[in-house]
Write a structure and sequence with these properties.
heterodimer, A: mainly alpha, two-stranded antiparallel sheet, B: alpha/beta, Rossmann fold, 6-stranded mixed sheet, 3-stranded antiparallel sheet, 9 helices, 12 strands, 27% strand, ABC transporter ATP-binding protein (chain B)
Chain lengths: 281, 282
Amino acid sequence: MTTTTKPAAPVVATSARRPGAGALALRQGRLEITQFLRSRESVVFTMGFPIIMILIFAAIFSDEIAPGVSYTQYFITGMIATGLMTVSFQNLGIWIPIERDRGVLKRYRGTPMPKWVWFAGKVIMVVVIGIAETVLLLAVSVAMFDLDLPQTTAKWLTFGWVSVLGITACTLCGIAISSLARTARSGSAVVTPVALVLQFISGVFFVFTSLPTWMQQVAAIFPLKWMCQGLRSVFLPDSFGAREPGGSFELGTVALVLGAWCVIGLVLCLTTFRWTTKRDG
Amino acid sequence: MENELAISVRGLRKAYGDNVAVASVDLDVRRGEVFALLGPNGAGKTTTVEILEGYRQRDAGEVRVLGADPAHPDAGWRSRVGIVLQGTGEFDELSVIEVVRHFSGFYPGADDPDKVVERVGLGAKAKARTHTLSGGQKRRLDVALGIVGRPELLFLDEPTTGFDPEARREFWELIRDLSAAGTTIVLTTHYLDEAEALADRVGVIAAGRVIEVAPPNALGNRQESLATVSWRTPDGTPASAETATPTALVADLAARFGGEVPGLTVTRPTLEDVYLRMIGHS
């Protein structure tokens, strides 16, 4: 170690050079995004997975499931919802246990950083990556699979609030479920099966109404089913609403269920979040 | 500032279920001193330090760190305390300078990140991703993050575990520099030479209690304890005697041998002897 640079004396008087709270959150968000983009697995898995799935499924199934509605269009709406869930629920549920296990969270707790700044950083990362991923999916779908973008402001608005509510609920649930994993490795073991089962029963891979009734009822408890349904109201013709289980797209129920999951997720986060591993006290 | 004690602890106790990690610890650390907490694994060093750092809640006892109760740390207090934990929190995807710069943003009077990286000896590695660093280099990054806020009080939990001898010497120099600049330093270690080289005072902790606090050369009445005089008898067999008056014994031997005493040594117990005796007794 060089001793040419002498350490500065400890700070006694507090000067006010620290960035303000908002700037701290933005810095934290930028750091999280940098870390995400530099970790190749997360980029390939999160951004690439939905596109690869669309390419595969579009190549296998080319039938129409209703007049003017191809299976591919139905599937794309499901993959947009899945993409939002992957970037929030899976991403956080897998990475937070790793960071907790490595001691990254403990290290942050030892600094004067306000706790909420760390959460804000995660949310900024999820939102930015979520938008980028959705735009990419839409671009591919419009270019290759004749997906029509929403034509009215009302539909864009629906697209907006369904996505925001959905990604919020999934973010909070992802943070909450991260506390279930005891070690770095178990995060993905906890989260992946949950996400995969939800995709199968929520009308992503299969047309929802073709699933057994009990399976539909189970799926209706969780957010993904309602995110898919809300997005179908945006991207599929209005006439398709009649083919939904409730005879319409039920946007009111979509808002209600997703809102309820935001509350449940928030309560779970506040009551169960851990900055350190169990063995670490 | 408030008073001359950086840390004051009375009757500290912490149990995990039936396992009493800290039975009763009393401790005072003066401002500006280097204090080493020495003890075997499981003695309660880390639990004690993590309570002082505000990471763990105590079951009982009075604790003041920089004039405040660490059980309720606020941002102002946190910005005056630097922490180097035992385990490293790694940021694999970031470079050394990126991590240090980011953490410097949390502190009101942070030091220049480039200078800090230079000072811990990572100048040549500033742009390297942290996962490419060796164990010792990662530890230096930990130290950089601990000091970037220019703390008044720096905790170092087993800072040189895994260092090669040269890296340890360099690290000691860094600690001496920080101390010379006025930083109060509390370090835990199970290296006796480290405690002896760095600490103004050493607290020996065993089975959850502080059994003695003294400057390293006075620990366990080291200065007053019996000296061991060893030599070889004329037929070549080794002989030795413990005595409170080694000079007299050596003079006596010199007279007996009529000059040089073969294989003569006079030793007092090393810090290690004293330490092992102390923790053996507890």
